[in-house]
């Protein structure tokens, strides 16, 4: 599972992500979606994606709109975007079950609370961080104060011309 984060603050807070969107970064993000057969999201990410992607065209839009989408939310009662399913009950148990099914990669873009829960439960196979050359002092922290240590092993890294680092880790 993969997630994109800005330095110190997750999810592109304060518009940190889009000023750095380049051809290189677009290809890397597009590759994440192209490799996946399931998109796992929390409510906030689902609502943001569902408001934009159905109205977009192009290769990435086709991939995102066509992929199976699984949404973890305690407040949504239905999901209407095509190929979307709402997790009913415990999201950790649902993700364990999803991982046990045949298929390829489950990609998790953003959804920081879900990332935290899955990392704590030992369900993340891979953590992909897009680190932007920008200090942002506000926003949701991916790893808040008091998070227990989780040893990680760097498995891949790339540096884009705009200074963004594309880092992939797996639990050590």
Tell me what you see in this structure.
With 172 residues, the chain is α/β, with parallel strands linked by helices. 29% of the residues lie in helices and 22% in strands. The chain has 5 helices and 7 strands, in the order H-E-H-H-E-E-H-E-H-E-E-E. The strands form 2 sheets. The protein has a 4-stranded parallel β-sheet with strand order 3-2-1-4. A 3-stranded antiparallel β-sheet has the order 5-7-6, with no helix packed on it. A hairpin with a 5-residue loop joins strand 6 and strand 7 (165-171). The two termini are 15 Å apart. The relative contact order is 0.25. Mean pLDDT is 85; it is low at 1-8.
Main features:
single chain; alpha/beta; 4-stranded parallel sheet; globular; disordered N terminus
The strand line-up of the biggest sheet is 3-2-1-4
Q: Provide the succession of SSEs.
A: HEHHEEHEHEEE
Strand content: 15-25%
Provide the residue-averaged pLDDT: 85
Low-confidence stretches: 1-8
- Count up the helices: 5
The helical percent reads 25-40%
Helix vs. strand class: alpha/beta
End-to-end C-alpha gap: 15 Å
Number of strands: 7
Radius of gyration: 16 Å
Envelope shape: globular
The description of the largest β-sheet is: 4 strands, parallel
Walk me through the topology.
Blueprint (H helix, E strand, L loop, with lengths): L22 H13 E7 H10 L6 H8 L1 E5 L11 E3 L4 H10 L4 E3 L4 H9 L6 E5 L20 E8 L5 E7 L1
Parallel strand pairs: 1-2, 1-4, 2-3
Antiparallel strand pairs: 5-7, 6-7
